[in-house]
Structure formats: C-alpha cells, structure tokens
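Rotation project, supervised by the postdoc (A.L.). Task for the rotation student: set up a whole-complex structure prediction and record inputs and outputs verbatim in this book. Inputs entered:
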Amino acid sequence: VRSLTETVAIATESFAMSAAPAASVPSPQLSLSSPGLEARQEEDHVSPAATPALSLSAISIQELVAMSPELDTYCITKRVKEVLTDNNLGQRLFGETVLGLTQGSVSDLLARPKPWQKLSLKGREPFVRMQLWLNDPHSVDRLRNMKRMEKKASLKRRSTVIPDGESPVPPPTSPAPAAVSPAPTGLAKKARVVLAPEEKEALKRAYEEEPYPSQQTIEMLAAQLGLRTSTVINWFHNYRSRIRREHFIEEMQQKSPGLEGSCTPRMANDGAVDDAGLSPDRPRSTEEQRLNVEADQCQVLQFESYSLPPASIKQEMVEEEASGICFRNEGQEGLPLQTLHTQVIEVGSGSGSGSEGAYLDEGVKGSSPKPEAEGGKGPLVSPFPSASPSCLPISGETPPLPPPLVPGASTHSPLPPGAGPGTRGSSPLAQGSDGALAMGWKEGSVRKALRDEVKAANLNSIINRLEKAASRDDSPDWEF
DNA sequence: TTTCAGTCAATAAT
DNA sequence: ATTATTGACTGAAA
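Outputs recorded:
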C-alpha cells in the first residue's frame, strides 16, 4: 500500500522542477496538518480497481507548497505568459480558474515575481499552482473550454431576451431588484483616491529622506498635500514594498544565465513523437514543449482541478457541457465556497477525443462573490460551511479545506514557517528546469508500472493533439 | 501597534 | 477587451 509519504513523493516529483530532494526524508511533517482527512484514503477504496489510479487527492496544495522544492518563479511566470499568449487565453480567466486570484493580481505576479526564497508560504502558493498547471497536459484545453463556455453563456445571456423580437425594452437587463444607481444604501462608494503626479513626487522625495517617517512627519505630509494621513501611510507601505520588490527582480536577473533556454523545458530526448513539422496553424510550440516535458518526466498524475473559488465564475457556465467539469453554484450571494481539489486521474484510458471525457475532474465552485454587497453590509463572508461536494467523484477531499480565496478566509497552513522545506537544505541543484528532475526518490515497482501507463497515455494524448491540430476549429474565436 | 505580504478592485493605459 | 497600475484592506509577525 502506498504510503502517504510515497504519494507525496510522487506528487512532488510530478512537479518536475528543479529540485533535489535532498536526501532526507521529506515527509514527516505533512501528516500533521490535517489530521484526519487524508491519511486514510489510501487505496483501499473502491472500485477504481484495476487501474492504478493514484489518488493523492489527499494532499492539499498547502502541503504541496510546504514540501515543494525551490521553484524558479521567474521561469514559471515566463512560461505561463507564453502559454497564455500562445493560446489566446487571458489572465482574468487563468487567474480566476487556476490561481484563484483576480486579473490585477495575476498581472502583477506575472510581471514581477518575487524570488522563491523571499516568498512566504502563502506567496508561494500561486507559483506552485502555476507549476502544476504547466505540468498538466490538459490545462490549456480546459481553459479553452472554459473560455468557450463563457463566451457562449454571455452570448446566450445577451440574446435571451431578444429572441422573439419583442421587448425592445432594455429594462430587462439587470433585474429590477438591484437597480438604481446611486441611491441605494445611500452610501456612494468612496471614490478612489488618485494621487496627482506632483503629490507622488513629493512623497517620493520625502521617502528618500525618511523611508520610515514618524507619525509626525506623516501628518505633516498629509496636511501639506491635503491628503488623509491614512493615505500617506498606505502610500509609504506600498512604496516600500514595491521598491523592495523591484530590488528583488534586479537581483534575480542579475544572476540569471540570461539565456533563453533556461526556462524552457526543452528536452532533448526522444525523438519519438516530436513535432514532425506540424504546426498547422500557429505556433503552438509551447504546447508541444509541454508535451515533451510530460512525456519525459513522467508526470504521472495530474493534479487537477484546482478549482477555484474565487470569485467569479459566472454561474452561467454552470450547465453546459463542461466536459467533466462540474460547477456548483450555490446560489446567491456571496457564498464563496470553494474547494480545491487535487485529484488524480487515471491515466490509462485514453483521453479520448479532445477533452471530452477523458479525465474526470470536477470542481466545485463557489459563485458570486463579488456581486456587490449591497444589502447588508459589508462583512460578507461566509463561513461557508458546507462543502459541497457534489460532484466529486472520488477523493475524499477535504471539505475543511480552507478556501483560498475570498475574504477573510485565508488558508493557513499549519506548518511552521521554517518547517516546510526544511529538508532541502539549500540549493537544490538543478533548477535548470530542464527537466533535470532529480530523482531522488526511490522508484518502486508501482511507479514503474505507472510510468508505463503514462507512456501509453502520453501517446494517446499526443495522437489526440495531432488530430486536433489537424482539424482545429480553433478559430480565432472572433466575432460572429 | 506598526510593518509586511498578499490581494482586491477601481481605473488607466494599451 | 485585455493588461497594467496602484490606493486600500486583511491577517500575520514583530
């Protein structure tokens, strides 16, 4: 029986990154985090019988984060940007569905990633998710599907009232309820403060002299500039931290080998499949690259759907043929529930056509978080209780998982800060991202079997892709 | 309390 | 439409 430890090891490996797991045993600590949940589910379970589908559903990303070897945040963001642009995927969708972050945050993260060592456990999470996403061969397809569904949904929404030709009256839009503009609640939203360039200049000057101004200085500045003191305080906090960050990136670039390839997981290996000159429409090289990676590194499982919670996925996409995706929307307002799930799928069966059917994943999503808060007040948030395991197949996941997103609830990991990575003492070699994949973990027979399976799966997947490429409908999705 | 890290979310800029 | 910027907020350290 697979031990938790082993499972973890495998999972970690699938990360495919740098890493050297150092000799020490990596897992001791994990267990402490969520006591009951996971642990048990080892395999016993049910039917999945025959296939060696592993389920490491039990591992939460927080644990993954804690155990993760050092990742090259710069390379990760670089690759993510490539994949997104190559496939015409926006950061909004990516952020909301993969990372559980808003567009602005994603933009910032991709543009100015902090070095791994400077990140807190919480801050590493998005990078781990990105790495996972990059490793997952179906990630792009999934996102594409979602994009399609969203589009369809919005289209439907638009036309929904128009059909019979009647009711040219626009009112229908936006339900009567909410409506009305400024009056409700009486409180206009506080206007966003926008500092004038000169004000910023003044603040910067003040910063040069005193990066940490005293209460007194702050008040003086505020008075002088006609700003609220809290604005001045916030400005200093933000400025300091942003300056600091710039620093990091400088440092980081300085050390980087500079060459491109360093971030690209190109493997020289097997010529097998490889791109036989097929590049039907568009440079989808990154995709191929991904393929290579997977093939070689044997990332067996995919952690799948980290579904996000965040906010926003419109409930519109709920129905639809989400191949395998199951969203649940709990209804109104604000309930964010979410869940993150890592689940594994079995690889063996082929991924049939395109994305359909092949993998089963699921996700549960919360909905509508943002829709204003009207009603009552602000505090929102819900203790979102229930989990809503609705569609989840197997995995016993963890309901108790803290929702990564949303107000108040941030997840914390039980692990002590220092703990996590403890094992890997210091520099993991590698990092080259070139798939070095240090395998330090022992390779058991189970793994071997898996590997074979993966190979087969990869073949299928590749075939699939080729077929797809040949008949790609990919239309630039545009307009009518 | 104050600072820091992460994010959000409005709005600027492309 | 998307992506970038940035003041403000939240929770955790110090």
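Student's summary: Confidence is low (pLDDT under 50) at residues 1-56, 165-183, 268-480 of chain A.
Supervisor addendum: Residues 101-105, 108-109, 114, 119-120, 122-123, 126, 189, 191-192, 194, 212, 233, 237, 240-241, 244, 370, 405, 410 of chain A lie near DNA strand B (CB under 10 Å from a C1').
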